[in-house]
Amino acid sequence: MNAIVNTRVPFEILTSLAPQLDVPNDGRPVPLSFFHAGSEIYAQGEKVASHYQIEFGAVRIYRLLADGRRQITAFHLAGEMFGFEADLAHHFFAEAIVTTGLRTFRPVAGLDRSRELLPLALRCMVRAQEHLLVVGRQTAIERIAAFLIDMADRQGELTQIELPMSRQDIGDYLGLTIETVSRVLSRLRDRGVLKFHGLRSLEIRKPETLRSLCE
Amino acid sequence: MNAIVNTRVPFEILTSLAPQLDVPNDGRPVPLSFFHAGSEIYAQGEKVASHYQIEFGAVRIYRLLADGRRQITAFHLAGEMFGFEADLAHHFFAEAIVTTGLRTFRPVAGLDRSRELLPLALRCMVRAQEHLLVVGRQTAIERIAAFLIDMADRQGELTQIELPMSRQDIGDYLGLTIETVSRVLSRLRDRGVLKFHGLRSLEIRKPETLRSLCE
DNA sequence: AAATCCCTTAGGACATAACCGAATTTCGCA
DNA sequence: TGCGAAATTCGGTTATGTCCTAAGGGATTT
């Protein structure tokens, strides 16, 4: 996985880094594009033009109900790929959570990528299905615990976690309100399970307690 | 889609039908196997040996928590394929809901099926992600409405629905208890939206009302 | 046709998490 | 370092859905 995770680098500096990051792929340079925090990468209903690999930063994939309720179906971190769809149109929205650099892969006519794409799609599928168990059948504290363990695993660091997303994002991912997310995190802090260094940086002090919470 | 949906045919009769149903595929006959209601097709942790197409009947894919809570991640009906996994082991359980006939596809060494499998895997992925929105952000009545509309769409018939699964199955699919499922269905019946012909056979009397419930 | 069993429905008490309003903290920016 | 806006946290109240118990209904078996 990429070493640069969820940093808040000013946009100007990023642009100057572009030439170094823009390494060739399959003999052809793949363009690297930048997205400010909160900016849209693609929208639901849009035609699928390419898929993406995250060079640095983080992305949220989500869907909206008519009254504004939002479900985030996935977070993607540095090194991961996203943007696959079942047909020609996007079924979800994708937004940069923080300043994010993406490598864009456009499909090449006549070139069959299904052999490489299949394992990635399968992994996405299993992840979504496993997340269903969390959202459908676990309590608030179990959901938060599962989320923190997942984030820790994906960031490599076992005890130190950087959260690129807001409490609202976490709530919309876990099917909880922002208040419940905040309350549960505070309770875990008070119990000595977590220690915060700022709002979005934390340390797991009792990994075994956290793990026992999601059964 | 196959015409035979969710019928309760005695096992003996099914066996006698086997020769007719066992049509060749790729010049080689694909074996058809039968499963009684409730019998296991594969278990979580088992090595993936093949994937399956449903000739008739219905299948539930699920996962369990240590204390017995269950989340059904998908129902599969006649004509559909299932059993794909991200690696060599099954991440979920699969069970026949009613008496079910399956066509089993074993991977052939040296034969790359990813081109055919990718669209199926992507469809499964999108379906799971869309289901996340239902389970994570919708109310009980909205979930039931979405479920009924999905079942109607997949069975071809627009107003007549046969439910192969129990109320418990529906609850475990939608993240609700059996009582809530029952209560909501009764309320929809009392409101004249649904009309039941037995417990597992129903008619949508007001499709537009149902549709307006999931926004 | 009767009996049994299991699934389903119903009703009430309870609990978890949502909702509402407000105080507090954090972080970007000067 | 200090200011201000935004995000987060906190407390109280409410509602939705769960839990528990019991009654009802349908299907299968004999």
Could you list some keywords that capture this structure?
DNA-binding; Jelly Rolls; 4-stranded antiparallel β-sheet; homodimer; 215 residues; alpha+beta; Arc Repressor Mutant, subunit A; disordered N terminus; 2 domains
How would you sum up this structure, described in words?
The structure is a homodimer of 215-residue chains. With 215 residues, chain A is α+β, with helices and mostly antiparallel strands. Chain A folds into 2 domains: 11-113, Sandwich (Jelly Rolls), CATH 2.60.120.10; 138-213, Winged helix-like DNA-binding domain superfamily/Winged helix DNA-binding domain (Arc Repressor Mutant, subunit A). Helix content of chain A is 36%, strand content 25%. A 4-stranded antiparallel β-sheet of chain A has the order 3-10-5-8, with helices on one face. In chain A, strands 4-9-6-7 form a 4-stranded antiparallel β-sheet. A 3-stranded antiparallel β-sheet of chain A has the order 11-13-12. In chain A, helix 3 crosses helix 6 and helix 4 packs across helix 5. Chain A is globular, with a radius of gyration of 18 Å. Chain A binds chain B through residues 61, 63, 65-67, 69-71, 73-74, 84-86, 91-92, 112, 114-115, 117-119, 121-126, 128-133, 135-138, 172, 174-175, 215, and chain B through 61, 63, 65-67, 69-71, 73-74, 84-86, 91-92, 112, 114-115, 117-119, 121-126, 128-133, 135-138, 172, 174-175, 215. The structure holds a DNA duplex (30 and 30 nucleotides).
**Proportion of residues in β-strands of chain A:** 25-35%
| Domain tally of chain A | 2
Outline the biggest β-sheet of chain A.
4 strands, antiparallel
Instruction: Supply the number of helical segments of chain A.
Output: 6
> What average pLDDT do the residues of chain A reach?
87
Largest interface: A-B, 41 and 41 residues
The coarse overall form of chain A would be globular
CATH architecture of the largest domain in chain A: Sandwich
Seen as an oligomer or otherwise, the chain set is: homodimer
The fourth-level CATH homologous superfamily of the largest domain in chain A is Jelly Rolls
H/E order of the elements of chain A?
HEEEEEEEEEEHHEHHEEH
Q: Care to count the β-strands of chain A?
A: 13
CATH class of the largest domain in chain A: Mainly Beta
How far apart lie the N and C ends of chain A?
A: 27 Å
Return residue spans of chain A where pLDDT drops below 50 for at least 5 consecutive residues: 1-25
